[in-house]
Write a structure and sequence with these properties.
The chain is mainly beta. The protein folds into 2 domains: 35 residues, Single Sheet (N-terminal domain of TfIIb); 67 residues, SH3 Domains (SH3 type barrels). The strands form 3 sheets. It has a 4-stranded antiparallel sheet.
């Protein structure tokens, strides 16, 4: 078992300890987490919209320019409101559902936080 100590992401206690493998626990608040959980939180905190506002899962955003859609004769119009976004890794870092188009991926540089 590793003797590695990591601070708890929930209560910020300095005594978080490894329970083997990728799992960590906090003796103060009993919170358990994995390193992949922390990486997902880092990803969320680094995704920014066109104005530099930080985006998080569940936010509502507005498309700032007409975006062509492969296989569709019409673009997603500027001003379209997109609710309940989900952040992902990659070039198109927002997964969402848009009325009339269905599920799609957007780049955060083409949206602003509502």
């Amino acid at each position: 078992m590793s003797e590695e100590v990591k601070p708890c992401p929930k209560c910020e206690s300095q005594y978080g300890y490894s329970m083997g493998g990728d799992l960590y626990a906090c003796p103060d608040c009993a919170h358990e987490w994995t390193l992949s959980d922390l990486k997902a939180e880092e990803l969320e905190s680094h995704v920014k919209d066109s104005n530099g506002n930080i985006l998080t899962n569940g936010d509502t955003v507005i498309v700032i320019k007409n975006l062509p859609v492969k296989g569709s004769p019409k673009p997603v119009k500027a001003g379209t409101k997109v609710k309940n976004i989900r952040l992902t890794e990659g070039d198109h870092n927002i997964d969402c559902k848009i009325d009339g188009f269905g599920s799609m991926a957007l780049k955060s540089e083409f949206v602003r936080k509502a």
